[in-house]
Amino acid sequence: MSTSPARRTKKKVCRFCSDHQISIDYKEPKFLLSFVTERGKIIPRRVTGNCAYHQRRVQEAVKRARLLAFLPFTASYQP
Amino acid sequence: MSEKARKYETIYILRADLTDEVEKKINDKVSEVVTRFHGKLEELKDLGKRPLAYRIAKHTKGHYFQLNYQGGGQVVEELERHLRLSEDVVRFLTVREIQRRDIRVENPTPKPQQQEVTA
Fold this sequence. Notes:
The complex is a heterodimer. Chain A is mainly alpha-helical. Helices cover 35% and strands 0% of the residues of chain A. Chain A has helices spanning 15-18, 29-32, 45-48, 52-67. Chain B is an alpha+beta fold. Chain B has a single domain, classed as Ribosomal protein S6/Translation elongation factor EF1B (Alpha-Beta Plaits). Chain B has helices at residues 20-36, 73-85, and strands at 6-15, 40-56, 59-71, 89-96. Chain B has a four-stranded antiparallel sheet with strand order 2-3-1-4. Chain B is globular and about 40 Å long. The interface between A and B is medium-sized, with 19 and 17 residues.
């Protein structure tokens, strides 16, 4: 191991690279929900393990979905 | 027609409280706009009624429609102008369909063979 093994977690593989069947579509809010937090923020790729190319596609899709009210911009306030 | 035909996809949201008749009228009109400006209509899909993730102009529900067509930029311009003018359209979004290199070469860089004997 090159870096300290204690802090290194298992290297994540981009799920879109490992499975070419998955498409990133802004019309599938249920699927995109797995790439945003509860508050509606886009999860960084250091967490999801997406590669740069696919993260850009995800980012684009989430933003389009937000415009069409498939996804929220922010979580709605519920007391 | 000198303009290059491209593939577009427009999603528009109508108010959820419209009658089927009015909806049909709007959809027919939209299709008519596309063909009038020499666009080729490919598909008009009803994506159903669903709640909006946030309120848009006091609306909480919307009826989604997806329109796929080919044409020059003028078609998009006219179609969007038409949608903008209509009071029953809550929101719309036009996207150009791009062929993406999502299917990439399997194993672009072959992994170096794991060395079994280390010592």
